[in-house]
Amino acid sequence: MEPSIATFIGKIQLDKPVMLASGILGISLDVFKRLYASGAGAVVTKSLSTAPWDGYPNPTIFSVKGGGWINAVGLSNPGASNFAKMIEPNQDVPIVVSLVGSVPEDFETMVKQFENCKVKAYELNLSCPHVAKVGLEVGDDPGLVKAIVSSMKNATTVPVIAKVGLGTSNYLNTVSTAIDSGIDAITAINTVRAMAIDVETKRPILSNKYGGLSGTPIKPIALRCVYEISSQYDIPIIGCGGISTWEDAVEFFLAGASAVQLGSAIGDNWIGVFDDINRGILRYMERKGFATIKEMVGLAKKS
Amino acid sequence: MQRNLNHPTIVTIEKVIDETPTVRTLVFSDDIMPNVLPGQFAMVWIPGVNELPMSVMISKETGKAAFTVRKHGPSSTGLFNVPVGGQIGIRGPYGNSFDLREGKLLLVGGGTGLVPMMRLLTFVKSTDDVTVLIGAKSKDEVFFEDLANDLLANNSHRVIVSTDDGSYGEKGFVTDLVEKLTNETHFDAVYVCGPEIMMYKTVQSAHSRNIFVQASLERMMKCGVGICGSCCVGEDLACRDGTVFDGEHLSANKEFGHLHRNKAGILENY
Questions:
Q1: Secondary structure of chain A: what % helix, strand, coil (to 5)?
Q2: For this structure, is A128 an active site residue?
Q3: Domains defined for chain B, CATH in brackets
């Protein structure tokens, strides 16, 4: 029998294990449909806020000389309400709605706005490294994490995922607080706070000065985090950070992830990357005799 | 280290040419930008101001390229004001380019939308019969007429200027001229770049007569490489799938000619 690349992230079932990461390409339903048709198992939306945000002035994204990308887009988004109206007609595409906010009430308000939408899961952005009062500033505050996750779990029956990143506190504390508060899965990791300076003009290139590093340079760090989380906690994990090939994806499965997300690889290889990775995973499974993704998850910990 | 095309490379402005009171061409030396294809663009960083997508203008001098900018908002005004000796960062080139057809060609440009048209003129064959339409609001805003004639010196050609107020050339909208010419002549290809409504009408005129037509679209851009999604037009990303699209494809796109997204990604009417 041919192996299956379908996967379960806890209760969340996906036909394919490679998802579009949040912040990437996510403002038009037509683009979501195209990505799904290109082999994405699910698309995660841009992080949505209670009101529309313009984000920072350019430069907001560019490549780092040694590889990878740095960005400080500033969580630009049309606001949860506008976005919900746009995706309301959707029936086919598995959409994970990413939410960003400062207090539990922000999240409760937004969940209500998606009442008429087909939402596969919510992903809480507890880890954006370049916007004040949200993201990492929330993720670094265990009290807030507890309050937000608990209120989300009360507000919806849809699975809730927490996306964690490397802030000023130990990210594993955020993970354990989220688990204790009832979270359904963890996405690890977000971009890593970073910057770049132009030597000719002697100034930071990003208009926000600080941004987040993504792409291949952070892959080993993300992989370490997934391995650490899966070694210490019994929670479904989505690996994210620098994944651009099927080997990267398999590494994350072996470290303990049930699915992966990618974004920067689209900048380098465009949207054919989903299908390339899916095919590569399938060939690997055939070669190694795996029937399901689940059989691979966390295997590296046993060696 | 090899140049990373997705990282800003600093270049120095060597010459500033005033095209009109509000339009300037800034010339610089570079290894890559002089040789880009018509329709391709660069992300141009004006340190301390912003970063803008700009079509790459030709230069008469070897090894040089340029940006032609109209001062409009704070960002384009920032670029407009960069003096000789000033430094800007460039990354790219990005995007696809116009398909080069042969025979009777019609090029339609409005404002700085003429920039890719001028580069396209450097690619035409001597056997091509080329008509260039330049649309402007008034006489003050007409530029690149002489340049177009110079570039086509060895071709059977005509360069027609139309101004909305009739202060120079033919009076009226350039799109009315497009409708008239496409009705009279079967062109082998029509190329257009300019304000969205100009492109929309030009595509309609040509496509409805089964004439091959392409337009180079402009949208708000951040990354230039298809990551951020800011420039999406329906299912298309202007930066990566375009900026050049066929009329056939555009005619099926519900947003082309009608809607664009603002900085937050909310659809707004043109």
A1: 35, 20, 45
A2: yes
A3: 9-94 (2.40.30.10), 104-269 (3.40.50.80)
Query: pLDDT digit string (tens) for B169-189?
Result: 999 999 999 999 999 999 999
Cα(A24)–Cα(B240) distance, integer angstroms: 14
- pLDDT (mean) for A209-237: 98
Q: Does A242 touch chain B (CB under 8 A)?
A: no
B168: pLDDT strictly greater than 70 = yes
Q: Which residues of B touch A (CB under 8 A)?
A: 1, 4, 6-8, 10, 43, 45, 47-48, 50-52, 75, 87, 89, 91, 222-230, 232, 234-235, 237, 240, 261-266
From chain A, the residues in CB contact with B28 under 8 A are: none
Tell me what percent of the residues of chain B surpass a pLDDT of 90: 99
Query: How many Cα neighbours within 13 Å face the side chain of B211?
Result: 30
pTM: 0.95
Cα B101 vs. chain centroid, distance in angstroms? 18
CA pair distance A231, B258, nearest whole angstrom: 53
Token pair of B108, please? 């339609």
Q: Which residues make Cβ contacts (< 8 Å) with residue B123, sequence separation at least 6? A: B38, B100
Cα–chain-centroid distance for residue A212?
14
- Work out the pLDDT band at B1, boundaries 50, 70, 90: low
Q: Across the interface, which of A30, A79, A270 has its CB nearest the CB of B240?
A: A270
Taking only the tens place, the pLDDT of each residue in A153-162 is 999 999 999 9
Nearest CA in chain A to B86: A201
Q: What is the 3-state secondary structure (H, E, C) of B162-219?
A: EECCCCCEEECCHHHHHHHHHHHCCCCEEEEECCHHHHHHHHHHHHCCCCCEEEECCC
Instruction: Go through the domains of chain A in sequence order and give each one's CATH number.
Output: 7-55+74-192+214-302 (3.20.20.70)
- Residues B213 and B181 sit within 8 Å (Cβ to Cβ): no
Provide the ipTM: 0.94
Mean pLDDT on B51-73 = 97
Tell me: pLDDT of A1 over 80: no
